[in-house]
């Protein structure tokens, strides 16, 4: 029996985040929009909910990909709109996310990414859903999304669907 889990990721443009996770083996669905947590992080911030099969892609890989595909080590003036976060749905995910962040921080330096409980979601309008798939040749996609997908091919090739290589 297939078990699907979900986790939320925020950090950069949700168009980019959606595109990154959409090319991974084991990801079944991505909800793109805005996520809110508990106070003081209860304002909506661009994010996605990733539905995945943990037998195919584990949470550690998803977290590492998330950290490497947005500015997870630097604060900037747009952090209220682009909160760097892992939105958890369980205490088990919280422990796993803390362990992953700690292990990666030892090797790569401190991350600003927060682990926050998921509280609310608001979907993007249909116009922006699957933005990359609908607009691959647009300058935004070429400039911001394609480099992230090339990074996935270099560092996480075994986790990436082969069809992505034909696009880049």
Average pLDDT level:
91
SS element count, helices? 6
Give a short account of the largest sheet.
Answer: 6 strands, mixed
Order of helices and strands: EHEEHEHEEHHH
Mind telling me which CATH architecture this is? 2-Layer Sandwich
Structural class: alpha+beta
Q: Spans with pLDDT under 50 lasting ≥5 residues?
A: none
CATH superfamily: Peptide methionine sulphoxide reductase MsrA
Number of strands: 6
Helix content range of the residues, please? 25-40%
Termini separation comes to 35 Å
- How many individual domains? 1
Strand adjacency order, main sheet? 5-4-1-3-2-6
Strand content of the residues, in percent?
Answer: 15-25%
Supply the CATH class: Alpha Beta
Rg for CA atoms? 15 Å
> Based on CA inertia axes, which overall geometry fits?
globular
CATH topology: Peptide Methionine Sulfoxide Reductase, Chain A
Describe this structure in words.
It is a single chain. With 168 residues, the protein is α+β, with helices and mostly antiparallel strands. It has a single domain, classed as Peptide methionine sulphoxide reductase MsrA (Peptide Methionine Sulfoxide Reductase, Chain A, 2-Layer Sandwich), CATH 3.30.1060. 38% of the residues lie in helices and 21% in strands. The chain contains 6 helices and 6 strands; from the N terminus they run E-H-E-E-H-E-H-E-E-H-H-H. The chain has helices spanning 14-22, 59-68, 91-108, 131-134, 139-155, 163-167, and strands at 5-10, 27-36, 45-52, 85-88, 114-117, 120-123. Strands 5-4-1-3-2-6 form a 6-stranded mixed β-sheet, with helices on one face.
